[in-house]
Amino acid sequence: MKNIFILVIFAAFITGCSSKEESKLMEILITKYTKEPDITDLKFKPTEMADCMMEKISDEIPGIPGDPRRDPYFTAYIGLSIVPTSKEQILKNFKQAEEALGSKQAVHEARASFGSFAMHCIETLGMEVAKEQDEKEGM
Prior knowledge:
mainly alpha
């Protein structure tokens, strides 16, 4: 019984830990989705969109929450989620992601995943908004 308690406490501790990179990515996503017209036009909360994206990213990358081996992946997604304002920034973001992931192919795969994660989250949140509107109209 004591061992089970220790495992439960350890699992809760690990799950509750987030790295500096993970926290930074969350902040960047919230900022990004606060400014993105598609998100605001659809009446999505930027925090919900960012939470959904973080969940999808976290599910996709190797390791368990709190594992420091996940940090390079979060670093790569930080570079992929920042909207570049110049050609130099595009190259810098790509280089940062390549260093974090180890290859150009991995960066292209992460970029494709990022896009599919966004589409999944938009679809999921869209269904939630539609359900809320249906409930309001039904009252």
